[in-house]
Amino acid sequence: MKLVNIDKSRYRSVNNQVQIGLVATLAILSLVFGQLMIYFFGVKQLAGVESTGNFHLNFTGFILAIMACILLVRNLRHKPRFYEVYYVWQLKQLQNKIFRKLKSVQQAAKDNNRDALVILSFYYQSLSLVYNLDNNTLTISNVNNELEKLQQCIDAAGYSIDVEEFTPEMLQAF
């Protein structure tokens, strides 16, 4: 995966629209599906009785709404308008995969393993990109410090590393 420069204002605008749209869609569809399930399969309300026992039908309506939202996201993720949001989502998934193996990658980087240095370079630069897009100013300084330390290790090992060299398959060695 390549690191791509993303227009921050466009990303944040579309990301906010996607989040609000999904929450609204989930809420509306949950109510609609739940009411339809109760209408067709539920126990009718009796006078003086508190519970009708239709919780399972409401929950089924919620599950159906989640499934509809998943289908909506799967169909919209490749549209040009959602490119930035989908790209950052994929980048965050890749960062999570790297994070799960971070200790062993860092240990290999201490031994001047070139692939480990490439992985760490990609990881920290991608974190910097995402933190900048998400306005995460609290931890971006830590990431920048880690990038500086990593660059010192790369220079000391005599390597010339480009993040474009990174491939997800590199993680299989760790």
Give a verbal description of the structure:
With 174 residues, this protein is an all-alpha fold. It contains six helices and no strands. The chain has helices at 8-41, 55-76, 83-100, 102-110, 114-133, 140-157. The mean pLDDT is 90.
Percent of residues in helices = 55-70%
Radius of gyration: 23 Å
Distance between the termini: 18 Å
Model regions low in confidence, pLDDT < 50 over at least 5 residues: none
Oligomer: single chain
The number of helices is: 6
Largest sheet: none
Q: Give the overall pLDDT as a whole number.
A: 90
- Gross morphology: elongated
| Helix and strand sequence | HHHHHH
What percent of residues are in strands?
under 5%
Structural class of the helices, strands and pairings? mainly alpha
What's the total count of β strands?
Answer: 0
Describe the secondary structure blueprint for this structure:
Blueprint: H1 8-41, H2 55-76, H3 83-100, H4 102-110, H5 114-133, H6 140-157
Helix pairs in contact: 1-2, 3-5, 4-5, 5-6
Describe this protein with a few key phrases.
174 residues; mainly alpha; 6 helices; 70% helix
Short description:
This protein has 174 residues and is mainly α. It is built from six helices and no strands.
